[in-house]
Amino acid sequence: MRSLGSILLMAIFILGACATVPISPISSSDVPALKGTWEGSRQINWGRYQSYDPAILEVDNDSIPLRGKLTVLFMEGKDTRVFQFDNGTIDPKGNLLLPLKEDTKAVLSFHKGENKMRLDGYYYYGNYVGRLTLDKK
Fold first, then answer.
1. How many domains is the chain built from?
2. Which CATH number goes with the domain that contains 87?
3. pLDDT tens-place string over residues 106-119
4. What is the DSSP string of 35-97?
5. What DSSP element (H or E) covers 114?
6. What span, in angstroms and rounded, lies between the C-alpha atoms of 106 and 121?
7. What phi and psi, each to the nearest 5 degrees, are found at residue 32?
8. What is the residue range of 111's domain?
9. Which pLDDT tens digit goes with each residue over 21-58?
10. Could you tell me the pTM of the whole model?
């Protein structure tokens, strides 16, 4: 079990990392910047088990609807899951909405700084909600 101090330290680190790259609602002029490869991780709780899985988002085009795939290397790469999408959109709040399959989707905010772009938000799988954080490569 993690101590309260280590949990607080981790929360401060995560908040500090996000503070350096401000959130921007995605506008039509930002859509071309989404094209390309994004790498990061998916964090999700499965009851008592929490997994941190490497994730790769590949966006193939630079216009709406966005097409591509999200690859999650579940269980340390022993169970690779690939989710194709062909209807990525921008929701009314300016977030990237990726419907991945019937019960799976990602809703990501766009963070852009001078030398860094990040997509960060929620990963929904059935009744489970996780975090998906990806940096542009």
1. 1
2. 2.40.128.120
3. 999 999 888 899 99
4. -EEEEEEEEEEETTEEEEEEEEEEE--SSSSEEEEEEEEETTTTEEEEEEEEEEEE-TTS-EE
5. none
6. 7
7. -60, -30
8. 4-136
9. 678 899 999 999 999 999 999 999 988 888 999 999 99
10. 0.81
